[in-house]
Amino acid sequence: MASKRKKKQRRTAEKRRNNAENNASGTSPLSGGSTGSTLYHWLSDGLSSAGVAVNEHTAMCVSAVYACLGLIGGAIASMPVHIYQRTSDGRARVDHDLWWMLNQEPNANCTAATFWEYLSTSRGLHGDGFAKILRASPLSPRIVGFEALHPLNVEPFRDNGRIKYVLHRQSGVASEIIDADDMLHVPGLGFNGLRSMSPLRFALRSSVGIALAADEYSARFFGNGARPDYFLTTDGVLKQEQVDLIKDGIDELHRGVSQSHRPGILQGGLKVDQLTLSAEDAQLIATRQFQVADIARIYGVPAHMIGHTEKTTSWGSGVEQLSIGFVKYTLQRHLVNYEQEINRKCLRDRKLFSKFNTAGLERGDIKTRNEAHRIALGRAGEPGWTTINEVRKLEDMAPIEGGSSINTGATNESTAPIADR
Question: Under 8 Å CB-to-CB from 354, ≥6 apart: which residues?
């Protein structure tokens, strides 16, 4: 029984490997209708419960989705990535070749900010971010750049227990098989070893579908300018000539700015019946507001940070507390995934590791920072735990002479620079 099971597993692995090799010859399964393909999902569950197709193009038409992805991607792109080395007393920054690629130019065609925003958007829509690791040559371990890839053009598969990736290029260009060592794969929620759960197919499907349907309904509602604001009613029956005369009189009365606020006179028992929004139309506004909050909740973004300011946040008040909360509870879960993937694929050294610097986003206002610096330097005879030059470095200022001493809080103790003690 064991031998039969092994033979069956071997045949299954060979079949998958042969399929991957056939796919690499230039045919792309993304347009096929087989189970698991993009076409299959589009045909089977691509439509939301609101009857609207939900994909990356339609989702980005929803302002809340666009704002959330832009906020998260922009925040990640604005933070520098440093390479550190573990030391006996902590860590120290090192000058590494990866710094330029991660912070300035991952390849000749884009900047680092564009690269990080693309990966962040890919994970926010499709669940996974992919970037091919570019090396000096096929046999060289030296990394010379990174190329961001569209998630729908990458198909992971297992080959004898090892993950590999089929990269489908544009039409007319042969696809290629990429080894796991040459691919940055940053997964998201629900990772099963090959792919993560796509937010478009799961969390965003209903929310975006309802938002799109509400937007379309609103456009038609406000675009239909033929809907009158009031009706003139009478108990009698008017002839067509009388109806036309009344319409002409109303048009003449309200034509032009100079005719504004002039009173109208109703004769012959005419009455004005004002039209108001129906309950369904009034509910449309509440529905659209709820969808903004719902999409913000999916991405873990405080609604007020994308312009939805109806309700307050529970993260405290002030720009400092809001920024710290956004970094701690939203960005940090993204940053850890990026850092660990860079560490295991690019550094491969227990002493070296990458780290996003979030200090810029966590900085408070000038008054709060100055108060914190006073405490750190030592005030009212209290001992300090940092130096003037360290504070100046935090504020992006150049060091000064004599600024490397710590205030011990006692006049009879040495205040010599740290480097001299």
Answer: 81, 82, 83, 84, 98, 102, 338, 339, 342, 343, 346, 347
